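User: Design a sequence. Structure:
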């Protein structure tokens, strides 16, 4: 089983930044507005498609346009940092692919606005690195505690036991959330 991935480094970076400290619903709305606001629509057999805007397009956009999508000033700056890193070649997907996950995460964190959680999320969802788990995701941690029926459970022990597939736990928790499954401890 292969989890879904973002098609490229740029889209993974954007999602990693936009989804920081927001609910899935709120971040999805912001991302939709960002794509609709920046992309050139394409008509394909009567269906209007909106391709993901590239980093150069984001750099050309004004702050007002980006803020209208729901982005804070800080996230606008972070997205611009990521766009400059991609367009300048300071960060390349081929380089990230070639590195072990722990080193790749540190490489991603060189971009201002990419922290530990975002780097892990980018590796997991952008590069299919199942050996990473985005620590610091309070929703995921809460759901793990609820599923285990042990509020004192040690997340590090669970992740260590899962080894190189710990990222699958994150995907299953995310998919459960998207399907509206409520994780609650048994009575």
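Assistant: Done.
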């Amino acid at each position: 089983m292969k989890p879904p991935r973002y098609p490229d480094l740029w889209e993974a970076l954007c999602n990693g930044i936009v989804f920081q400290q927001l609910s899935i619903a709120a971040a999805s709305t912001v991302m939709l507005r960002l794509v609709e606001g920046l992309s050139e629509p394409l008509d394909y057999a009567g269906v209007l498609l909106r391709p993901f805007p590239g980093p150069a397009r984001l750099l050309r956009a004004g702050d007002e346009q980006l803020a209208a999508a729901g982005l804070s000033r800080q996230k606008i700056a972070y997205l611009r940092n990521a766009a400059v890193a991609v367009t300048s070649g300071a960060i390349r997907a081929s380089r990230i692919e070639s590195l072990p996950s722990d080193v790749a995460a540190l490489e991603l964190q060189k971009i201002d606005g990419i922290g530990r959680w975002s780097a892990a999320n980018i590796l997991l969802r952008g590069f299919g690195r199942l050996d990473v788990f985005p620590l610091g995701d309070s929703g995921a941690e809460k759901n793990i505690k609820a599923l285990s029926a042990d509020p004192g459970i040690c997340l590090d022990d669970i992740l260590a036991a899962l080894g190189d597939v710990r990222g699958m736990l994150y995907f299953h928790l995310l998919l459960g959330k998207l399907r509206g499954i409520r994780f609650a401890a048994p009575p």
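The longest strand covers residues 42-44. The mean pLDDT is 90.
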